[in-house]
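Encode chain A's predicted structure.
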Amino acid sequence: MWWLWIILGVLAAVAIWVLGTYNSLIISRTSSEEAFSTMDIYLKKRYDLIPNVVQTVKGYAKHESDTFEKVIEARNMAMKASSGSVEQAKGENALTGTIKSLFALSENYPELKANQNFIDLQNQLNQLEIDIANSRKYYNGVVKEYNIKIQSVPTNIIANLFKFSKKEMFVVDEETERKNVSVQF
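Encoded structure for chain A:
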């Protein structure tokens, strides 16, 4: 009779471990989804702000239509990419690069640099870029923990059993983010 209690005890321990592991994976996955959602909110705010910046700059730099078109094109590409996809990360990196060109362009227009509306928009956009960078760091940290959890033994057994899949990090494009912005006239 004592062997029955041992078997029941082992089964109960395994069941408790499976439930605890499953719940831990659910919490990690939900945290990564929440982190992406937070980042997505900042990205949408940036999408909404960009047309205002472009319109303000257009009033001062009418012959820079190529730069404006690139900014709007990059914004539209980033907005159309599916949420959480590699294409979205590429679109966001391209958008960041074109925004840098737009602000570098303003250096050649002293009236624009002195315009209070432009200064306010630039400050708002700069704050959004800081918020986006911080939310990307948070998202990537949460995703890293989740990915480690679903790939580590013995948790990977439960992750595979319940089809938890690896999430992609939101990475910086080397070419777009790390090179200097050049504006040519």
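The chain is about 80% helix and 0% strand.
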